[in-house]
Amino acid sequence: MRYRAILLCAAITLLSVSFRLNAQTGAADGSGRQVQAPLAVVYVQDLTPSEMGDRIRDILKTRVAEKLESYHLRLVAEPVLVDTPDTGEADIRIQPLLAQSLPPEADLVVASVFRIRQTAVDIQFILLDPKQKTVLGGVLSRARTGLTVFTSVDAAVNDLDPVLEQYVSNRYQYKPPEGVVEKITLRGGVEGAQVFFAGRDVGRVSEGALNVPYTPFPVGSRVRVDIRKEGYHPRQAVIDLPGTQVESSIPALQRESRFGLGINWAFGEALGFGVSGRLYAIPDWTYIQLDHYRHMTPADKPGFRDLRHYDFGISAGQYLFLSYDSLVRVAVTLGVGIIYTSPADFSGPDFSDVYLSIVSPSVELNLHGWHFYVQPQLKFTLGLGDNLLGRSWLATSIGIPPVTLGVIRTW
């Protein structure tokens, strides 16, 4: 009995060792034969070298290696840190970075590239078949920095599961995905503009171009692109992906206007000129405007004096309907003001007429920074104090409101 117990224990030990060796060195193919498990290489690249970047790099090196081992993918060597290129951007397929140092026996390359953005870190994982020079899959994840960086990076690494599961389930007869876009290059926009591709932050325009991190979009897809930059109006576009290699243009951004200065002239107050200044509460949409117009009414009868008029006004304006980049725009203003009238060679006090500017519309030709406009002046004088005009609508000698023609330069 004792010999039988010893033999039974020996058999169990041999089975356990055999099982472990099978799990570590191979797996069964469809015919039940044992085959060698793939050899993997891990590369980690930090696009924002910093103390926080060093922590994330170390976490990624450990977690990605553990993730691969959990799928029985054997590492050829310790994870490798790739030096950040001078351009600050990673190649979409990472191949140029790996060409010189790739171990020849490697069956799979897992590249991890990350960039820190304030309180978040974007992490891009890419799987490559180094022998076929083919992208096998990839995923773009976002994690939080700070105290939760460990768990956040863990969650990002777990996003690799679907890609690894697909690779492992077909690893001895794997074929690269067909009908999938491999590389997307966007050109245009504004230098430094932030680009969101299909809702995900993919980087900033640098030297007029941006390579979109690899994501396996089907060929023929149409993807929304959002372009943003501080101080500029955001834009949207839809990009077609007709082939595996796509190069497309994105629209330029227009700078927001926050200030404006202008000059104007009014029909009906021809012997004069005006100046104006704007402060935009909402860039290119809502503004406060200060106006000053001075003109003269010549005496039309002997013995009468010329009249000098000084018009000071403040108004709030709002553009309607049409976009900030429309060639023609419509706005309305509402304001108050006062007109001082001083007869020539008159030593007495000036007359003052307080008025309301009631919903004065304007039509504007918008030439991106230069605004040429026409605006009737719907002013109603209130007849307050020592006034000259009484309670009436301001009108020209032919009975229509004064019409202002002007230009404003905005920036």
Describe this structure in words.
By secondary structure, the protein is α+β, with helices and mostly antiparallel strands. It folds into 3 domains: 36-169, Double Stranded RNA Binding Domain (2-Layer Sandwich); 189-250, no CATH class; 259-410, Porin (Beta Barrel). The protein has 5 helices and 25 strands. It has an 8-stranded antiparallel beta barrel. Strands 3, 4, 5, 6, 7 and 8 form a 6-stranded mixed β-sheet that branches. It has a 4-stranded antiparallel β-sheet with strand order 11-10-13-14, with no helix packed on it. α2 (51-70) runs parallel beside α4 (149-158). The protein is rod-shaped, with a radius of gyration of 36 Å.
Sum up the structure in keywords.
8-stranded antiparallel barrel, 6-stranded mixed sheet, Double Stranded RNA Binding Domain, Porin, disordered N terminus, 3 domains, single chain, alpha+beta
Q: Which helices and strands appear, and what pairs or packs with what?
A:
Elements: H1 2-25, E1 26-28, E2 34-36, E3 39-46, H2 51-70, E4 74-75, E5 80-82, H3 95-98, E6 108-117, E7 120-129, E8 134-144, H4 149-158, H5 161-169, E9 183-188, E10 194-197, E11 200-204, E12 209-211, E13 221-228, E14 235-241, E15 245-250, E16 259-267, E17 272-282, E18 286-297, E19 307-320, E20 328-343, E21 351-366, E22 370-376, E23 379-382, E24 391-393, E25 403-410
Parallel strand pairs: 3-4, 3-5, 3-6, 9-15
Antiparallel strand pairs: 1-2, 6-7, 7-8, 9-12, 10-11, 10-13, 13-14, 16-17, 16-25, 17-18, 18-19, 19-20, 20-21, 21-22, 21-23, 22-25, 23-24
